[in-house]
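lol ok so funny story. i was supposed to be doing the assay writeup but got distracted and ended up predicting the structure for this chain instead. priorities right. anyway since i did it might as well share w the group, maybe its usefull for someone
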Amino acid sequence: MEPLSHNIKHVAVIMDGNGRWAKQRSHPRVWGHVRGSAVVSTIVEEADNLGIEALTMYAFSSENWSRPQTEVRVLFNLLFKFLKKERERILKNNIRFRIMGDVSNLPEQTKKLIAQLEGETAHHTGLKLTFAFGYGARSEIAYAVNRFMKANPGKEMSEDDLNEFLMIPDLGDVDLLIRTGGDHRVSNFMLWQIAYAEMFFTETKWPDFTVTEFRFIIEQVAKRERRFGAIAPTANLETNVIVARENQRLIRG
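and the output, tada:
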């Protein structure tokens, strides 16, 4: 495929529609999860090819615990199989792999595999691949606040402080949030990090999501004019923050 010019650094994906995709084909919901898991590898590979710096994928939310136990066990098993299957490719391609969320209830063999892969890729400098598993954004914000207060009793928290105490601080802000499956909501996903994210909602259910559509979305969003509260296009939020603080200083005299 032809090179694609863009300025998108961090893409977050809500992989939705697996169960409905299976139901439309008169199959159990878990069949959609199995088919959907195969799509993950192709999107990770394409994100790496496109030079995207970080890809965060919503694999299992804290609210997903309300689903039937059979479905939850299938999701656990699919995570383990993905890590086993993709480990060599992740290592070969200099990908930094991490899990964001509460994995305490995962099977021991899965937790060991996660720890192993996170350790093996800790110094990798390529794509930052993060799976949000057992994750909820409100819980993450509470987690950050509690950690900060414990480390800094009596100190007032700033936005920079909260950033620093998030689960994976170096992921930074999300530039683009993609949700498949037709729903137009963010479902408690990275609420702090998506404050200025561009959003793209597609009717395509996750098992049908392709590299071609992923590239199309990147291309379309790259054409959008991002101002981050200013009146002219701006490279990133950090640039505007610096200008805003200087303007405040000058106005105060």
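The chain has eight helices and six strands. The mean pLDDT is 90.
back to the writeup now i swear
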